Amino acid sequence: MYTMADAAPRLQGLFTQLLGAPLPVRIRAWDGSQAGPPGAPTLVVRNRRALRRLLWKPGELGLARAWVAGDLDIEGDLYATLDLLAGLVWERGEDARTLAQALRDPEVRSAVRGLVKLAGSPLPPAPPPEEARSPRRHLHTKRSDRRAISHHYDVGNDFYEIVLGPSMVYSCAYWPTPDSTLEQAQHDKLELVCRKLGLKPGQRLLDVGCGWGSMALHAAREHGVAVVGVTLSQEQAAYARKRVADEGLTDKVEIRVQDYRDVRDGPYDAISSIGMAEHVGAERYLDYATDLHALLVPGGRLLNHQIARRPQRDETTYSVDAFIDSYVFPGGELQPVGSTVTQLERAGFEVRDVESIREHYALTLRRWVTRLETDWARAARLTSPGRARVWRLYMAASAVAFERNRIGVNQVLAVRTPESGTSGLPLRAREWTESERS
Fold first, then answer.
1. What domain range is 36 assigned to?
2. pTM
3. Which end of the chain has fewer CB atoms within 10 angstroms, the N or the C?
4. Residues 167 and 277 both lie in one domain
């Protein structure tokens, strides 16, 4: 029998038995008991339902469901806690074979039985309503992509204003210094993209996945180009069109609710794809690259800004991140940067520059988390407490992942080089950076 105030020490012991290592955080359980390293961040287990979630979905998805539902919480430094837990959860592996192998260990089976007794009712709790119902296999049809984009982006522009700030740029910023403002860093990122594309007055730019219109506005206002921005989000498009009208740029910028696969009014002099290609999917990536190549004039440039994962020894075992797929980006897939470069070149592009800006994304995400935490009550009211918790965990965990080099982000500059072989790029590499500093 369990006494009224011994749940936390029992959980510490069971998790140590289960994981084969001491849990590096303290635990405070629903009965008020506490256990674990003094001074360490505290994992708050608010009820037995949290254990049932973990038992029914061991690993990341069970933890995510408990977090989103408010069954689990963290007291102390969120980043430090996620960093401590990373090796036990995100870097451990949790596919069916790994779990099956673990359950052959008598110690693991004993720990599971102990958790079952402590958890109480055997029935699985229903997933939080914020969870998306994802198919077993993402086909990335136009219909499924629209649905996935709506799940992530159509949660209210007011909510995104809280997180992103006045720049309304939802991708990695480019920081002059860690102490710079988020707005300055996002301005510098947009300017860097424009310089890499070599934009000049009178040219046409296609902005694929244009979001709330920030890149389109910057390119039209600062570089005098005509821009077509496409998005699948109705809310983004409405917001972007208002910004365009407010700035008096309706003659320069057109915002469409349109799939990039349906763009037929090329050719364009340049294409920007910033934080969009993660939605394409591995099986569709060559088609994506081929479509964009066909939309460019000879000599036209593509700037592909994309998050990348690290390659695995056995790529056949790769599976999408369960939490991200269920709560954040349904259907999103990360590929190694080498795969991206290969597919772009297979489509006919000449890849001329690859710049990793991994550390910049960690800085960006930490600023977004701070903005969310500062206006937490309003953010939760605009969406739901569960949705706000999704965003806090996703952004903080992503920041840790970038810092630990589990994922990266790269700007790949590619050219539709004409048969003459003249790329039109400056003779010296990175001239766009040099000119920016001069």
1. 7-119
2. 0.90
3. N
4. yes
